[in-house]
Each structure stands twice: as structure tokens, then as C-alpha cells.
Amino acid sequence: MEFSAIVVEKVPSLLLRPAAKVRWPALFDGVDSVLEDWIVDQMHIVRPVVETGYENLLLVRLLVESRLPSIRKSSVAEGLTVEDILENWSKIKPVIMEEWDENRDALIDLFGKVRDEWMDNDLATWIGANRFYPGVPDALKFSSSTIYIVTTKQSRFADALLRELAGVTIPPERIYGLGTGPKVKVLKQLQLRPEHQGMKLHFVEDRLATLKNVIKEPELDGWNLYLGDWGYNTQKEREEAANISRIQLLQLSDFSKKLK
């Protein structure tokens, strides 16, 4: 299952500002408390477009530039709306990465470093800034199924949240985090394991784009696919998924039943 379908991290308000200030020191000079609250609100809306954590930093800067012309360096920021971001993020992202001269790996490292420092200095506060969706910890604890975590989050963060917040221990060899390859590749690896032959395989994900990538791969036709309707997806995406025969919409209340 995909990790963001089972846990919410309050990244925008507590992690993104220090991370963004490290990368772009002058970024928040003109940001008052009103604008900062607005940014946090908008981040909750646009969060479904994020595939990997570092993209949150790009979104924060883009939102700031959309409101502060004096610091604007992106050609797409003027007049930008959250609806534009939701519809066109895959096109916007490469444009701003080039215009801001940013490097994906460097942003990933920065995002992880800031989170590491926070965890090292105050683990309790970091853990407290997260929450699992209701019922998920018990569903994981009492599942009769073998669970694998497939996530774009770095494995050490996923492991810490599972252990410290949910009280669940997933063996490290069953956590596929950032750097282990695309999710499609991981699913192919999992289905080839001898112990999985003849078993029903289920993939719970909250990003429709990821499920559509799975559908494109004939090798993965044996997977049962679910879009968690409680996760990072929009009403439009849920409506689209409802018309795709391979995908089942899954409600949070039914999640634990699928793990039995």
C-alpha cells in the first residue's frame, strides 16, 4: 500500500517554512502571518499533486511568488490559481525547476536534512505533528495479510511514524521508500517473489496517476487496484477512477476489511 494513503503529515506549516528559508533565505521576508496562513490553506488544497516530498518546497515558493510580484522569478506565477496547479502541475514543475535553476536531488536532500534535524532535536514534536487516519493503526496491527509499504517518503521517516505513532513494526525489507525505484517497478518485484505465487495481490494508493501507470503495464494485470478516497486526491479524480474498470474506490471504513 502507498504510505500517504494511511498517514497525514502536517508538513506545510511545520516543516516547509524552515526548509524553504534554508534554500531561499529571502523568500519569506515579505510574508506576514496572514499570507503565511493563506499559504498553509492553499497547500492543503494542492497537496494531491505532490508525488515526492521535495515538490512541497516548489509549491510553497510558487504560491509566495503568485502573491508577491516583487520576488517573482517564475513566468507561470502571475495570475496562478490553485485550480491551475491541480490541473497542470506536471507541466508547471519542469518550468519552475528550470527558471529557478533547481536540482531535484539537492531539494530531496534538503527536505530530508531539515526533517532529520527536527527529529534529532525534538522527536516528540515531530511525531506529534503527524497523525494516522482513523482506524488505520489497528487495521495494520491486526491484519492477516502480509503488508508492504511502498512510498515516495524516505524509508526512515515512514518507519519512525509507523513505530512511534501507530505502534506498528514493519520489517525494513518490507518498506520500499524513496530511492527504491518507481512504484511500478516495486510491484513487479513483489509479484515475482516465490512466496507470492498464487496469492491475491492488492495495491492501495491515493494518487490516481500512479494507478494509471500500473494499468499501462500488462505484467501487473494480476494486481487488484484501489484508490483510497480519503487520501490526496480530488473529487474529479475520484469520478474519473469510478469509470476505470481496473480501479476500485475504497472508503476508509472498508480499508481494514481488505487487510483481513
Automatic annotation (TrEMBL):
InterPro entries per UniProt: HAD-like_sf (IPR036412)
GO biological process: one example: SNARE complex assembly
Source organism superkingdom: Eukaryota
GO cellular component: endosome; lytic vacuole
One example GO MF annotation: SNARE binding
Name of protein: Uncharacterized protein
Organism annotation: Gossypium raimondii (Peruvian cotton)
Lineage of producing organism: Eukaryota, Viridiplantae, Streptophyta, Embryophyta, Tracheophyta
